[in-house]
Design brief:
This protein has seven helices and 14 strands. With 246 residues, it is of the alpha/beta class. Strands 1, 4, 5, 6, 8, 9, 10, 11, 12 and 13 form a ten-stranded mixed sheet that branches. Strands 2-3 form a two-stranded antiparallel ribbon. Strands 7-14 form a two-stranded antiparallel sheet.
Length: 246
Amino acid sequence: MNAMIFAAGLGTRLGAITSAKPKALVEVGGEPMLKRVILKLKNAGISRMVVNVHHFADAIVCYLKANDNFGIDIRISDERALLLDTGGGLLKARPFFDSNEPIIVHNADILTDFDISQMLDSHIESKADATLLVADRRTSRYLLFDADRRMKGWKNVTTGEIRSPWPDIVSAEGIVPLAFGGVHIIKPSIFSKLERYSDSSKFSITPFYTDQCADLYIKGYTPEESFHWIDIGKPQSLIEAENIVS
């Protein structure tokens, strides 16, 4: 089974904290976030992981080497020359993946304790092209889903911008806005569409999902049991994360 950890981000919202280290090595409860995500995925049965690097790339490479890659097969997708964002980063890492296995994609700055094995089971059972972790929480940008949790679009509540293959999506009956949680599972077959999606090598995965949701089966997944979820990309969030793991 394959996984990718997005660890190349600049971490600018953390200010001085990431002026000397990559965001993926910021510690919560005395352990770097990268370690927490790797062990979470390892415990779910993942045997191969790809970690992309850019900001303080050498620090991440050295950290993994010092820890013997935590006993699993970890490959480095090197973005030192150009940070490719989530869509471009995923596409660049394509050669590292087994072409027949689903790929779990996990942001290194997301602290969460839900059972990712159950999400994987749901993805496989539904035969979705992509399964996205979503929740009913406050945010400025929402993914839009129908009653069956099939993705229908995206909305920025601050600017009012709406993006969807269906022009009347907001007025459609049963549409539910949910926040994306930075964890998703994809079929390898998605890569053929990713290759043709953007003229640039740098692009985000969210607009891709939004633009392709009429042609691809992209579903939202929310764990049945309550779970913690924190984006540690802000100083206040780091404090909240420390309180959770303490």
